[in-house]
Amino acid sequence: MLGIAKTQTSASRRYVVRTVAFMSGYVAINVAAIFGAFDDIESPVAAWALALAVSAPVVGQIWATLSLMRESDEFVRAVTAKQFILAAGLAMAIASVWGFGESYADAQHIPAWIIYPLFWACFGFAAPFVRSSR
After folding, report:
1. Predicted local distance difference test score (pLDDT) of residue 132
2. Over the stretch 52-80, which tens digit does the pLDDT of each residue have?
3. DSSP 129
4. Which of 8, 26, 77, 90 could potentially form a cystine with 12 if both were Cys, beta carbons 3.0 to 4.6 Å apart?
5. Rounded alpha-carbon distances, angstroms, from residue 24 to 2, 79, 101, 129
């Protein structure tokens, strides 16, 4: 494990730190919500503040990934960008199919926030197939 850390670039170390920081906040807010910490919110302003608070780490994680691309060498930048674009396309395609299924085929509604974990699932699926910068 320590050998792996020695081979990481400074950009990848910053990415890991940023990811841990943003996802810790994301998990903390969602765990609090699961255990009912926000069940008594009645004010629309407070409800929107909660929605923004739980969305902020998501935005931060996307920024962290884009920063990794910006701070990395050309090869890592190109491969990560290709993986990111492919994952985004797959996630949008799946969301579109499901959305039209909701509209026309009475498919069960899925909340829009599911696109975020769907994107990362698509990223994880696509990443092993994108190993070249070409």
Report:
1. 84
2. 999 999 999 999 999 999 999 999 999 99
3. G
4. 8
5. 23, 27, 34, 29
